[in-house]
Structures are given as structure tokens and as C-alpha cells.
Fold:
Amino acid sequence: MNSIPAQPDKIVLYPDPVLTRPAEPVEVFDEGLQILVARMMELMREAQGAGLAAPQVGISRRLFVTEVDSGPEEPPHPTVFINPELELSGALISFEEGCLSIPDVRVTVRRPQVARIRAFDVHGQPFEIQDEDFLARVWQHEYDHLEGVLITNRMSPRDRLANRRTLKEMVLDFEEDLRP
Ligand code: ZN
Structure:
């Protein structure tokens, strides 16, 4: 698969089908990829999100960016994870999550507390890090996007009921935008 097309101009919203399609690996680490990553960082910051995956900007490739504040002493680090792989461990923890592609929906998701991530940086260099709690959760949420999995797929019956109206309105808006 060759280099990455176009510059995304906005975050794709539920229920756009690109969000539920498993993404393809990144195979070329070129300038197009660097431009895409920089643009994803901008869109994530504008939306004040902690993470953004390529399918969320309409590009079905396996990469995501994160920007998580690590505490009062450290500035937030923006990071890109390309073709990531996760190894999960620890107890399952329930915590509320949102998604930039599904604004106004909050869902309680159970996820393992600890994650080890192996990925490539924008130059194609492999790296591996481990973290827990919030960052481990962000990685898992973004990794889900690469598999075409959304928080709506992980909702409890109670969350499904609570968010039913909002999700239905999003479906109607999406269908309306498709009409000529
Ligand atoms: Zn999301």
C-alpha cells in the first residue's frame, strides 16, 4: 500500500462507516505521513481531546496520536503511535470515556489497568513503553478505533438506553448529510 492521500480537514462523526472498518497498516514512512500526523495533532488540540486515531479523520490506517498531561511538572507530550500493538494486564477498571467522533456521549468502559505498547514513530523507528490508568486507557480507546470498535460497541445496557436518543439523532444527521 502506498503513501497517504490528502489532508483531512475535520473529525469524522458517528456513524460514518470509516469508523467501523478495521484500518490497514502503514507501510510507507514518508512526508505524507508526517503531514498527516501534524494535521491530526492540530485537530486533536482544537477539539481538546486526549487522543485521535486516523480513521477519525477519514483515513483507514493504523496510527493514532495522543496528548496527555503527565502532571503539574511535565508539559503534555504529544506522541504518535504507528502500527501499534498492545499487551494488557492488571485488574479491569471501570471508567467513563468520551469520543471526539461521538460528542455528547459518555460511556463507562471496563478495561485492563496496565498496557504495554509497541509501535513505530513517524520515522519508522520502533519503540516500546508501558503505562497504567489514564494513559493505558487512552491507548486502548485509540487502538479500538484501528479495529473499527467504538465506545458504542462497549456500552452497558444502561448506557445504551441513556444515549439512545443522542445516537439516533446522530444517525439522522448523518443520513441527511448524505442526501443530495
Ligand atoms: Zn474515540
